[in-house]
Amino acid sequence: MNFEIHFQAMQPPTGAHPCERCLLRGNPAFLAVTAEDLRLIESFRTGTRTVEAGRAVIEEDHPSPQLYTVYSGWAFRYKSLSDGRRQILGFLLPGDFIGLQDEFADGHTHGVEAVTDVTLCSFARDRLWPLFHAQPKLGYHITWLAAREEKMVDDNLVTAGRRNAAERVAMLLMHLYRRAERVGMAREGWVAFPFNQQHIADALGLSLVHTNKTLRRLQRLGLYRLEGGWLRILEPHALQTLGDYFERPLQPAPLI
Amino acid sequence: MNFEIHFQAMQPPTGAHPCERCLLRGNPAFLAVTAEDLRLIESFRTGTRTVEAGRAVIEEDHPSPQLYTVYSGWAFRYKSLSDGRRQILGFLLPGDFIGLQDEFADGHTHGVEAVTDVTLCSFARDRLWPLFHAQPKLGYHITWLAAREEKMVDDNLVTAGRRNAAERVAMLLMHLYRRAERVGMAREGWVAFPFNQQHIADALGLSLVHTNKTLRRLQRLGLYRLEGGWLRILEPHALQTLGDYFERPLQPAPLI
DNA sequence: CGATTGATTGACAAAGGTCAATGTGGGTGG
DNA sequence: CCACCCACATTGACCTTTGTCAATCAATCG
């Protein structure tokens, strides 16, 4: 398969750019904002940052002085136990807002690590309250994002607590495909899938080996294909039913 | 047709009280508010509601037109799979705010069920945005509560995904004790513990039988006592270490 | 070409789930 | 007051799923 043309077309501009030329905002997955709100968001923003694949966006034991919005790339939130066991709490892709929890909780919260190279828009933590004050609608939007994220963690908790291995894998494949598709990362039924099996195992609460065996089984059943880092769902209905996981079409999300 | 909902809606508000005489607000676990904010909260509030132990506060398949703050009693949030498997997402006690997710997410979110008799202060969903607009500080506080709740779900996800049975039980006992203690529900080292083993199993992602065996084991080890619906932690250090779960002293929370 | 990273597999062990029986204490109708 | 019921807790026997260990394979990279 040759997806290079598409892939290039999806490349974000690296480095700083003004919010008025934000490439995400044209995306129908996000709410439109007024020019005034956009100016306010830009004044709240302190810059951009790039993190290489595999590096930490936020260290787990080191709360971040910044909040971020993912502008391009995939990342994940995680927590570790002291003996090294790691649980991925959720995946982050363009439009996701990172770091709210640190603003409020005192102790440790979670780490964030880049899966691919990631571009972020950064915001100063101590300007969050002034932002709420200056424009309550943006505060409302941030609450929206927090509630949506909690809903995703709720779903992941049901997965880890109650689904068996095959159901977990089915659910995750559908979930990741849907989210990528939503922000326009799908090309002719394929989405870039940069995760390795360790990521999947850590997200699902399974061991690496069992994750591998379960993935192979579903693949042999012809439910999906995964080639060269691209994922295609062959039997969405079967995967949804197996995972007992049905997403409604999602409303446009705020983008900060 | 659901008779219950109508019946509940017709209940006279039990224990109605003005916010100025709120018994929770004296509690050091909660932030002090100005008289003006208090008036605003009261104008946002639409009444109170009582739910009997074991009844639904919010039906899982029936999004609520109300938001609530728990005023007294214990409840829990949960989600079910279509074959009946149930996962408890978290426990709710006085001061916890319920229903934010429904405001934003379209589809299903979660159900809420009372463990003990529960008293709630109710708020109209459609007045949430006006509240943000009228007093951004209260909006900021609501975001605080949302972020705190997400942090708790994150912890539960680590538990379900990565801790073994004994670690899960140890963690949950410490967690519930701490939270109850924090809002002043402890009496000489004991807290009321109204949960049965099915609740614990559903919260931890374990089977009922295995939960029982694990509880008995930790009890025989002398780590805790549970008598007549009251819990006492005998070896907090051992339970914390076993569960790899260390809470910092918590800051005062906003109370809406 | 060796080295490294990630995927794959089989053999085996362990944790946890399922089934079924029993215990226990508090209500409740008679 | 007593026999019965019911919800919940407890236990043993057994089974299934998942985890662990270790070897092999495949692709990529200096």
TrEMBL record, chains A, B:
Annotated keywords: DNA-binding, Transcription, Transcription regulation
Keyword DNA-binding: yes
Superkingdom: Bacteria
Keyword Secreted: no
Domain named HTH crp-type: residues: 163-237
Family annotation (PROSITE patterns): HTH_CRP_2
SUPFAM superfamilies membership: cAMP-binding domain-like, Winged helix' DNA-binding domain
PANTHER family in the record: CRP FAMILY TRANSCRIPTIONAL REGULATORY PROTEIN, DNA-BINDING TRANSCRIPTIONAL DUAL REGULATOR CRP
Name of the protein in question: Crp/Fnr family transcriptional regulator
